Amino acid sequence: MDRWLIVGLGNPGAQYAGNRHNVGAMVAGELVTRNGGALRAHKARAQAASLRLGTGPGGAPGPAAIVAIPTSYMNESGGPVSGLLRFFDVPLERLVVVHDELDIPAGSIRLKRGGGEGGHNGLRSISKSLASKDYLRVRVGIGRPPGRMDPADFVLRDFSLGERRDLPFTIADAADAVELLVSGGLEAAQQRYHAPSTS
Question: Average of pLDDT values for 68-75?
Answer without folding.
Answer: 97
